[in-house]
Specification:
The chain contains 4 helices and 5 strands; from the N terminus they run H-E-H-E-E-H-E-E-H. By secondary structure, it is of the alpha/beta class. It has a 5-stranded mixed beta sheet with strand order 2-1-3-4-5, covered by helices on one side. Strand 1 (35-43), helix 2 and strand 2 (79-83) form a beta-alpha-beta unit. Helix 2 (57-75) crosses helix 4.
Amino acid sequence: MRANRLLLIAVFLVSGCTWSGVQERDTRPPEPPKHVLFLGRVDMPKDPFRAGWKASWSEHQPHFDKGVRDWIARNRSDWAFLSLDDRLPGVPLPPGSVILTGTITSLSYGIPAVRFFPGMGAGQEKVSGDFVVYAADGRPLAKFHSRESYLGGFGIGGLDYINMDTLVRRFAETTAEKAIEAVVPKGTAAGR
């Protein structure tokens, strides 16, 4: 009797649960994007007093481009993303296009030794910038300031879990979201 109970308990413990289900999928092909976000020039002004070992925008700009591209691909199927090459002659942009340009106002690696201890932002990594969204005809649609920072650990100090490239990608996602909200607000029917 006791062996039967132990066998039953052992079978119960090692057996797995399975679940199955069917979800209907829309078989229509996806609609082509209705809007295009062109990423224009995003620069950081030269600072003659900035030390060579400090953070430079040229190292992190590809991560900014990738962050904007990935956010649009993940969250807005009605938008497409393209980078503008300002060395090429200007071509007319299609209707529904917007251009995002900006200036990085702050880029700092912070101080990891200070960031390790919980505090009021001491040693934080940060990146911020001022951005303008232009319509295809060149008129400004929105101006905004975007900022992202990292305080270390899980947000209150401790060991670093993200690097500056990841922070710049998060900054790009925040910026892309704000740029698209400026063109098509969330509350409108066309907002999603």
